[in-house]
Fold:
Amino acid sequence: MICTPASPAQEGGLGLGNQVGLARLTEPLAQAGFGSVRLAATTPVNRVIEARA
Structure:
């Protein structure tokens, strides 16, 4: 209840939260040096996103 709303107040804070999708994560991961980003697995309650350099 505090992390996501407080994030945009920080420098560079994206406020992604736990419902962020793959499309929204791709850009910050690429900026962090990850060249390959994919959805590795999904369940009714989880998404596993694989990011490789």
Summary: The chain has a mean pLDDT of 86. The longest strand covers residues 36-42.
